[in-house]
């Protein structure tokens, strides 16, 4: 026994001394797949910057992580350059020109189940390729061709199926076959260790490599996309594709103690909601309570409840609806919102209602974080919405199309796939962007780069980012511990605290119940999959890749 302990101690000391003998990390990429992280680092090794690495990482995810990595979806970039300037790019999908407010309702005014989530009508006009090309033109340094090539190689040579991925393919195989037929690539029963080669996708990427944005939005790739969408009953046209433009937007910037936090603004709710939650708890000095204690869960839950109530009422695409951004993140307003918070009793959300299949799409969306050797930081969250989006697969193109239209409000008060409700602010209009929860976030501490983070998880994205920041900043965890720590989530309606199963003890749960909280430990397998980077005050870079998935960091030393 003693000998075993000694051996373990020697191994640990060895490991630690090897780590400390290594040169310091100069740059890092953390993403959902090691292949994509390594491809990003490969670009940095060639002298590229974080924006170049973003493009290569993103396209690699489109190949080897097809449930969420995409060219058939959209996303958001938040960046901070080495000179401290910040910005954001919205390349969110948008509603087709032929869309209209009640397009998911039957003649009695009821929501037609599945119409906004599966098949052709669920698909929004994709934004990813336009977004990446825009980043290249404005902020990149290496030639476009070099950034696309690694993804072409990955699609041509193939990637290895992980256990998680085999389970993910298998859980959706019936949908793939029902929608795309027996011959579709992902009708095959891939097992862990199998190699997926996708020549159609390699060919699509070659068009994009040769022709940039128009390689996707015009010509043969676009024609294939439109034909597949229309075959699946959808309404996207060549004109929709030709019209698509990404938009540079002012990010949401706010302070929390000595942090300056930059996150995504509308059409994402992420930045505003994160600001609301953080500002609501700021006066309480949460560090005096321990992590996931009764008090910290109560305080954060009550901030989350009030935030998601505002989200439902006020948030949508600010190009179409006057979102009251400055009021929503105003400290005085947020202090008032917490006036009725009571440590003794939960504040009840009114009109409790549960969405169907709540949180069963836990591996949709993906996030990656990058810091380069020059000090530029990039946080990107990108999505098809559900896993494999609408499940409509462009056969000649080798990729899935999103079902982002479900992020609109089909009918006020009726919950979407994530149980989220909304108002006219997020109703469907041609060319409008659907409201998102994606929260790519970059944080400065005392004016220096401190954290880069984000996560998938639908409505749980914002609360996962919220918790991870507090874990690192208030509860003094290192970045990996901050990412690993158990999570909970509340979103106003349904009036439930959702807990990751078997992670919270029954005594704590009983205390919450005695204060009037409703608990659900079963709705979710996991909450979020955070990929984060932390830079300490001495400039030391550490990474946190979420063990809930196959997420992995690659670094440059
Ligand atoms: N489709 C998930 C989101 O954008 O929030």
Structure description:
This protein is α+β, with helices and mostly antiparallel strands and 557 residues long. 36% of the residues lie in helices and 15% in strands. It is built from 17 helices and 20 strands. It has helices at 2-21, 34-45, 50-64, 128-139, 144-157, 163-180, 199-211, 214-217, 219-231, 238-243, 270-281, 294-314, 325-328, 331-337, 461-473, 479-484, 506-514; strands spanning 27-31, 74-80, 86-91, 159-160, 195-196, 247-249, 252-256, 259-263, 366-371, 377-383, 393-394, 399-400, 441-445, 448-453, 488-489, 497-499, 519-520, 531-535, 541-545, 552-556. The strands form five sheets. Strands 6-3-2-10-9-1-20 form a seven-stranded antiparallel β-sheet, with helices on one face. Strands 7-8-13-14-18-19 form a six-stranded antiparallel β-sheet. Helix 11 (270-281) crosses helix 12 (294-314). The longest helix is centred in the middle third of the chain and has 21 residues, at 294-314. The chain starts with a helix and ends with a strand. Residues 351-361 have low confidence and may be disordered. Glycine is lined by residues 365, 383, 385, 404, 407, 436-438, 458.
Secondary structure elements and pairings:
Layout: H1 2-21, E1 27-31, H2 34-45, H3 50-64, E2 74-80, E3 86-91, H4 128-139, H5 144-157, E4 159-160, H6 163-180, E5 195-196, H7 199-211, H8 214-217, H9 219-231, H10 238-243, E6 247-249, E7 252-256, E8 259-263, H11 270-281, H12 294-314, H13 325-328, H14 331-337, E9 366-371, E10 377-383, E11 393-394, E12 399-400, E13 441-445, E14 448-453, H15 461-473, H16 479-484, E15 488-489, E16 497-499, H17 506-514, E17 519-520, E18 531-535, E19 541-545, E20 552-556
Parallel strand pairs: 16-17
Antiparallel strand pairs: 1-9, 1-20, 2-3, 2-10, 3-6, 4-5, 7-8, 8-13, 9-10, 11-12, 13-14, 14-18, 15-16, 18-19
Helix pairs in contact: 2-3, 3-4, 3-5, 5-7, 11-12, 11-15
């Amino acid at each position: 026994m003693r000998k075993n302990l000694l051996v373990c101690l020697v191994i640990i000391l060895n490991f630690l001394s090897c780590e400390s003998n290594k040169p310091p990390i100069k740059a890092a990429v953390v993403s959902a797949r090691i292949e994509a992280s390594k491809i990003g680092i490969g670009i940095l090794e060639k002298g590229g910057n974080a924006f170049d690495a973003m493009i290569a990482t993103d396209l690699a995810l489109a190949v080897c992580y097809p449930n969420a990595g995409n060219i058939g979806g959209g996303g958001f970039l938040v960046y901070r350059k080495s000179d401290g300037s910040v910005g954001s790019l919205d390349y969110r999908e948008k509603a087709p020109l032929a869309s209209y407010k009640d397009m998911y309702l039957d003649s009695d005014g009821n929501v037609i189940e599945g119409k906004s989530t599966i098949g052709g009508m669920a698909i929004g006009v994709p934004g990813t390729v336009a977004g990446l090309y825009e980043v290249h033109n404005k902020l990149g340094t290496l030639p476009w061709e070099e950034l696309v090539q690694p993804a072409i190689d990955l699609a041509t040579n193939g990637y290895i199926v992980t256990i998680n991925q085999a389970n993910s393919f298998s859980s959706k195989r019936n949908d793939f076959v029902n929608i795309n037929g027996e011959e579709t690539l992902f009708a095959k029963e891939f097992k862990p260790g199998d190699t997926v080669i996708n020549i159609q996708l390699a060919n699509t990427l070659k068009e994009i490599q040769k022709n940039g944005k128009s390689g996707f939005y015009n010509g043969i790739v676009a024609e294939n996309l439109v034909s597949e969408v229309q075959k699946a009953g959808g309404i996207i046209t060549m004109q929709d594709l030709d019209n698509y433009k990404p938009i540079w937007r002012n990010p949401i910037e706010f302070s929390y103690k000595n942090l300056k936090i930059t996150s995504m603004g509308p059409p994402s709710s992420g930045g505003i909601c994160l600001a609301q939650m953080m500002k609501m708890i700021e006066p309480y000095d949460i560090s005096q309570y321990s992590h996931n204690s009764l008090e910290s869960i109560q305080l954060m839950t009550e901030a989350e409840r009030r935030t998601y109530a505002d989200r439902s009422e006020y948030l949508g695409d600010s190009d179409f609806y006057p979102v009251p951004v400055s009021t929503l993140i105003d400290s005085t307003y947020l202090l008032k919102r917490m006036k009725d918070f009571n440590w003794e009793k939960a504040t009840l959300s009114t009109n409790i209602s549960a969405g169907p299949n709540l949180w069963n799409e836990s591996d949709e969306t993906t996030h990656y974080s990058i810091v380069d050797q020059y000090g530029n930081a990039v946080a990107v969250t990108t999505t098809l919405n559900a896993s494999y989006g609408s499940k409509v697969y462009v056969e000649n193109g080798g990729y899935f199309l999103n079902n982002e239209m479900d992020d609109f409000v089909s009918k006020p008060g009726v919950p979407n796939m994530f149980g989220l409700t909304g108002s006219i602010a997020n109703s469907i209009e041609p060319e409008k962007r659907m409201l998102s929860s994606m929260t790519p976030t970059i944080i400065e501490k005392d004016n220096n780069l401190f954290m880069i983070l984000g996560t998938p998880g639908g409505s749980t994205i914002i609360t996962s980012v919220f918790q991870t920041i507090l874990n690192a900043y208030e509860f003094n965890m290192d970045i990996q511990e901050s990412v690993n720590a158990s999570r909970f989530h509340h979103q106003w309606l349904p009036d439930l605290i959702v807990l990751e199963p078997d992670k919270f003890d029954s005594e704590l749960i009983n205390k919450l119940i005695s204060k009037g909280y409703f608990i659900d430990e079963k709705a979710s397998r996991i909450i979020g999959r955070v990929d984060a980077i932390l830079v300490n005050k001495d400039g030391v870079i550490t990474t946190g890749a979420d063990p809930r998935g196959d997420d992995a960091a690659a670094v440059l030393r």
